[in-house]
Amino acid sequence: MTRDELRAYIAEHYDGRLKPLKTGKYDPLYEVAVDKIFEVAKALKEDDNLKFDFLCNLGGVDTGEHFEAVYNIASISNNLRLDFKVIMSYDQAEVESLQEIWPAINWYEREMWELYGINVKNHDNLTRFLLPDDWDQGHPMRKDWDAPDFKRKPEL
Amino acid sequence: MRELRTEEFIVNMGPQHPSTHGVCRLVLTMDGEKIVKIEPVIGYLHRAIEKVMENRTYSQCIPMMDRVEYVTSMSCEYVFSLATERIAEMEVPERAKYLRVIMLELNRIASHLLFYGVTAMDIGALTPFLYGMRERELIIDLFEMTCGQRLTYNYIRIGGVSKDIPKGFEQKCRSALKVIAEKMSDYEGLLNENPIWLKRTKGVGILPKELAIAYGVSGPNLRASGVQYDLRRNDPYCIYDKFDFDIPVRYNGDCFDRYILRLDEIKQSMRIIYQALDGLPEGDVKNKKVKLTFKPPAGETYTRIENSRGELGVYLISDGGKKPLRVKTRGASFNHVQILPHFSTNMLIADLVANFATLDIIMPEVDR
Amino acid sequence: MGIIKKLPIYSEKFPGGGIVTTSLEAALNQGRAKSLWYLLFGTACCAIELMCTGASRYDFDRLGMIFRATPRQADLILCAGTITKKMAPRLRRLYDQMAEPRYVIAMGGCTINGGPFYYDSYSVEKGIDHIIPVDIYIPGCPPRPESLMEGCIHLQEKIKKQKLLDWQEK
Question: Looking at the domain assignment, is residue B23 inside a domain?
């Protein structure tokens, strides 16, 4: 399946659940509603024509207006690639854990929780692991984060 | 008879340990000599590169990418440049593409030679280390004459490469490859049939195919478990579809297969470099439109390439400004450390070291 | 005879015999300077250059430098690579575990002041001299093996100048 065929297939079978976004370059990018995330991810993995069995990456994003969680998945058996994201407001930053579907996501979700403060429901081990154990300065990857010894590079 | 009772105890391995390749810490729960549970503790090299890059312009990001994975810096520079080029839908001169392939493959050979030496040293043989590093220096010399640095190159830039290769590069490159090809039989002769080596690696740390895919293992480790999946072939980037090369696969998934597969890959990389040197076209090496204050249009992409450890990816979001909104790097070693507890229990510490070494884990990619 | 001729200027030849006299200070310093065993403490990029220096082409052994994996047997911490806030207490502990006299070389920009991570990084310690005393700084990102070896030679010269009672005063 080429990228255009994949786009057409998704539009046909997942219409309404995966909403295409124009900002995605090269590989198709979709938006998924926060409460549908588990169901959609399960369907993408179990669909025999797609079979997305490989999780490439998950990253949290703070755009300055809202949080996003971007899932990058691939299929080894069918050789496909697809991205989808969920958009969350600052006061309701919570997604469902997908570790039942892709076990590899476990550490990525931990990292997202630790650096952005996006809560992950049903995660089995949501503990600190990148920052020091006695860290008490919040979630440093947020755009509005600041600390006394944190220096920003001055503009040239 | 008195009832015999045993107790489990905890051994702390790292963060300062010669065979954890940097600063990984493993908390091992032991039952006698057998490992019951492994808990990796990472973050000792968390340098916040992603945060730093959010406050740098696009061209300033490339030196930061060098430090994400310093053993194959070229591929890190390349993946960031490629992501930016995809967002900006930019053309790259043909000669620059060939130079990029030459540099990427040379760097892959250098990385695998380092792997060869360091793995053997971890398992207890010091001599291969000296052999591997000796030939690695020949490649480092080539990089040095091209861009002036030995480790963090800053050579592959957005829209091309920073400068053309100097006079005499091609000939020096060919002679270096010839030396390495000759020395390959030395490497194989030192270890491949060495009974101690075989005892330490054959049948040790078997990584099943299903587990590997579920936990996102990629690169040589995945191919050693019997999955023929190489992004140079499966998701071609640059001009890799023009070259003729094989994807080596092994099926046992043990330490020995992971080791031997990398030696096979060195030979394939050399084939690619010879083809690229033969077909090297004349022309520009940089897209002239890219200025220092370069602003790509708004857009986002996940770009992935195959580096010597596996899938190296960048999720780049541009909001149209001169600085990226978000750069998320994905290193293969992150998943390789994560999977370690799932197939390394019920073995000896010495075998865990062999396992850790042959997975070819490098910590900056994990912690970033 | 050749060896004796090459001995440093402060040693004198006994007339007619193979005995050399020198001060205790000079003998101790000579021993310390010429057998600096360093702790294998590579955290980041500089560790690869440290390995290159130890390997075939640059041959660190000719300066009398051999790596040790445990701080108990080491005289010198060659701190190669970024020290993060999470790693800083471990570095301090390793330093405390070493026997005196002990020396520290800060290799690379990150260990001097945070290097490329001075701005915008929330987790990098801005210089290891906040944690342990440093004898020699070697700039570079990463420094070349030649400059690392030059730094080690400077440290040897520094050791040769030290007074016997210096360590007790500290």
Answer: yes
pTM (2 decimals)?
0.90
Query: What are the two backbone dihedrals, phi and then psi, of residue B34, each rounded to the nearest 5 degrees?
Result: -90, 140
**Interchain contact, A147 vs C118, CB within 8 Å:** no
Which residues lie closer than 8 Å to B292 by C-beta, 6 or more apart?
B57, B59
Q: Are C43 and C80 in contact (CB under 8 A)?
A: yes
How far does the CA of residue C58 sit from the closest CA of chain B (Å)?
10
* Nearest CB neighbour to A79, from listed B215, B234, B300: B234
- Stretch B180-199: mean pLDDT: 89
Backbone angles phi, psi at B82, to 5 degrees: -65, -40
SS3 content of chain B, % helix, strand, coil (to 5): 50, 15, 35
Q: Which residue of A has its CA nearest to C124?
A: A150
- Chain A and chain B share a number of CB contacts under 8 A equal to 93
Q: Do C86 and A132 touch (CB under 8 A)?
A: yes
Q: What is the DSSP letter of A51?
A: -
pLDDT in tens, B48-104: 888 899 888 888 889 988 888 888 889 999 999 999 999 988 888 999 999 999 999
Q: Shortest CA distance to C44 belongs to which of B240, A15, B66, A32?
A: B66
Does the CB of A133 have a partner CB in chain C at under 8 Å? yes
Question: How crowded is residue A35: how many other Cβ atoms within 10 Å of its Cβ?
Answer: 10
Are C44 and B64 in contact (CB < 8 Å)?
A: no
Whether B1 maps to a domain, the answer reads no
Contacts of A131 in chain C (CB under 8 A): 86, 123
* B3 falls within a domain: no
Q: Flag whether B265 is in a domain.
A: yes
Angle at B226 between CA B216 and CA B310, to 5 degrees: 40
pLDDT digits (tens, 9 = 90+) for A84-118: 999 998 888 889 888 888 998 999 998 899 888 88
Q: Token digits for B170?
A: 């091609």
Residues 6+ apart with CB under 8 A from B314: B65, B79, B80, B83, B302, B303, B304, B327, B328, B329, B330
Instruction: In whole angstroms, give the CA distance from residue A53 to residue A82.
Output: 12
Residue B50: which of B350, B326, B353, B238 has the closest Cα? B326
Residue spans of beta strands (DSSP E) within A26-103: 29-31, 54-62, 67-75, 80-88, 94-96
The total domain count for chain B is 1
CATH number of the CATH domain containing B196: 1.10.645.10
Nearest to A104 among B87, B215, B367 (CB): B215
Contact B288, B301 (CB under 8 A): no
Residue C90 to residues A31, B25, B44, B190: CA-CA distances in angstroms? 44, 12, 10, 37
**pLDDT value for B236:** 87
All domains of chain A, ordered by start, with CATH? 3-92 (3.30.460.80)
Residues of C in contact with B49 (CB under 8 A): 117, 121
ipTM of this complex prediction, to 2 decimal places: 0.90
C118 shares contact with chain A (CB less than 8 Å): yes
Cα–Cα nearest to C82, from B175, B55, B70 = B70
> Which among B267, B104, B71, B274 is positioned nearest to B188, based on CA atoms?
B267
CB-based burial label for B129 (10 Å; 0-12, 13-18, 19+)? buried
Q: Residue B156 is part of which domain span? A: 9-366
C5 touches chain A (CB under 8 A): no
Chain A residue with CA closest to C114: the answer is A151
Backbone angles phi, psi at B301, to 5 degrees: -155, 150
Q: Report the greatest alpha carbon distance in chain C.
A: 68
Choose among B235, B299, B313: nearest Cβ to A57.
Answer: B313
Give the residue from chain B lying closest to C110, CA to CA.
B47
How far apart are alpha carbons B175 and B169 in whole angstroms?
Answer: 10
> Between B46, B48, B313, which is nearest A72 by CB?
B313
